[in-house]
Each structure stands twice: as structure tokens, then as C-alpha cells.
Amino acid sequence: MDNQDLLRRALATPLESTALDVLGRKYEGKVRDSYVTNDGRRYIVTTDRISAFDRVLGTLPLKGQLLQWVSAFWFDLTKDEVPNHVRCVLDPNVMEVNECTPLGAELIVRAYVTGVTDTSLWTHYERGERVFCGHRLPEGLRKDQRLERPLLTPSSKAPKGQHDESLSREELIRRGAITAEDFDAAEAIVMRLFAIGQAHCEKRGLILVDTKYELGKDASGRICVIDEVHTPDSSRFWMADSYEERFAKREAPESFDKEYVRRWLSALGFKGDGPIPAIPDDVKIEAVVRYLAACERIVGAPFVPDLEPPAARMAKNLGIA
């Protein structure tokens, strides 16, 4: 069975929501549902929901399994370099982790000036802004151009349904979102993680363009990487071998992430406000084909999906059937 057939089968059983309250107190994010226990553990369920422009747009087939697969790979690859919250993987969509208190900011690292959202570096640069999150940018940059060095560009953590806000280190500290000590410790972690990601992706023929990290403190006060790492949801990937030629021609890079869905929506005039256009099955399939290509390149192995209906499978694997 080829990927197209497999994904069309998976369209019939999306993991859109969960009802596993027997595991603990439920918290629902844009993409992940979490269940927190009383003994310091959390079950994270990566659903098939897709989020962009700070909105939940619908579902993509097998997206949750793909995201967890590649995130588990990165957590394992980097565990000796940076601390993370993972305890074990229980199901293709479920991971058990240590409960952590999230830091008051999302930490975004950017190596290129690009993007189409209101919070993207290119959007700010195109309208004439030359200081972004405290970083002064040179004149004459073009869209999709590599920066002289990766920049840490934090954002506020907006409630579900609201927009994140790009802020400098100084502004986050002034607002009381994070302490200077925690920010600097977190910065060292994410810049190390990004460097590891860039080096690994380069070996796989990919460019790690930018990525969003979430960090939190565990019960001992240690800052850990949480949520996900270098997935097509949290990161932007381009094909390395065609980047230079396409950049010279002012063509969009070959992309392996949810930028495909963003661009499709942007072409319809949707930028996050108003009714969400329905995403056709063909667009969903093409988006996941791109996710799949990126994930398999990163991991260096074929993805083997589980097509069993997810609710019954999770209940069985979690011992709550």
C-alpha cells in the first residue's frame, strides 16, 4: 500500500479529541490533550488536530502518530545533552512524562528570515521593522535569506484562541513572565538543542529553518525541554539541495512542514481571523505526505503507522479498556 492509500484510509478515523479522564485531570491544548496525575506524572496525547495562525483548523490523518514518533526520536537523541521530561512511550499517540511547570514564554529560534504569519520575522521585516525581539536586523535582507547567526525570538504564551506576541528578553522579564536567571538558563538549553538539530538535519539533507521550544521546571526545579522537539508542527524544514537555486530565482523553498497548509490558507485570504476555510481531503493528504517525508528523513527509518481505531487502541495500550 502506498502512502496516499494509507492516508486516505486514515482519514476515516482521525484522533480529534480524547476522553481519558480516568488517567487524571484533563487539559486541552491546540494539538495535545494532557492528563495530570496526583503523583507528578502527565500523559500527553498527541492528536491529529492541526494548528496554525493560533487557531485549530481541523485534523490531518496520522499527524499525531507522526509527530510523536519524530519527537520521541529527538528526545532520545538529545537526552544526554539537554534534560527533558520523557518517562516512556505507551502508545503511538501517548507519552508518559514528568509533570513540569511551564516557563512563562515560548522560545523560538530562527536561522532564516521567512514566514507568512503575523508573528513571523519576515512579516515584521517586510513592513519596515528593523528590531525584532531586541535583535537589530541589517538592511537589504530578502525573504528566505539565512541570517548571520540564529536568533532567539521569544513570544508570550497566549491562551487558546488568542494570538502570541513576540517580545524581547527585557520585555518578558519586565512583565514578570520569566526571571532573568531562568531566561538565560533556558536560552543556553535551546541554542544547544537548535545546534544539534541543525547538524543532524544537515546530514539528512534538510535545513532546520526555525523552531519553537517549550521548557518547564520539574519537581526538583530543573529546567527541562517539554512538549515536542523539532517536529513539522513546531519547526520549519527545507530541502537543502534545492535551497540555493530556488533562493536565487526568488522561488519558495521546498518545504516539509505545516507551512504548506499556511500557504494554502493564505492564498484564500485567511490569516487567522474570521471563519476557517474547510481543508479539502487532497490538501490534507498532500500536507501529511510532506510531514511524512520530513519525519522519515530525520529519523532515518520508514514510518510504520497503526491504523487501528485510536480510541480503542489507546484504551487497550493504557490498560483502561
Strand content: 15-25%
Uncertain spans, ≥5 residues at pLDDT below 50?
none
The assigned structural class equals alpha+beta
> What profile does the largest beta sheet have?
6 strands, antiparallel
Question: Would you mind describing this structure in some detail?
Answer:
It is built from nine helices and 15 strands. It starts with a helix and ends with a helix. A hairpin with a 2-residue loop joins strand 6 (86-91) and strand 7 (94-98). The strands form four sheets. Strands 8, 9, 12, 13, 14 and 15 form a six-stranded antiparallel beta sheet that branches. A five-stranded antiparallel beta sheet has the order 1-2-3-7-6. 33% of the residues lie in helices and 24% in strands. The protein is α+β, with helices and mostly antiparallel strands. It has two domains: 3-102 and 278-317, Phosphorylase Kinase, domain 1; 107-248, D-amino Acid Aminotransferase, Chain A, domain 1 (2-Layer Sandwich).
Gist?
The chain is of the alpha+beta class and 321 residues long. The chain has helices at residues 3-10, 63-78, 121-126, 169-175, 180-203, 240-248, 259-267, 281-299, 310-317; strands spanning 25-28, 32-36, 41-46, 49-52, 55-59, 86-91, 94-98, 101-102, 107-113, 131-132, 135-136, 145-152, 206-217, 223-226, 235-239. The strands form four sheets. Strands 8, 9, 12, 13, 14 and 15 form a six-stranded antiparallel beta sheet that branches. The protein has a five-stranded antiparallel beta sheet with strand order 1-2-3-7-6.
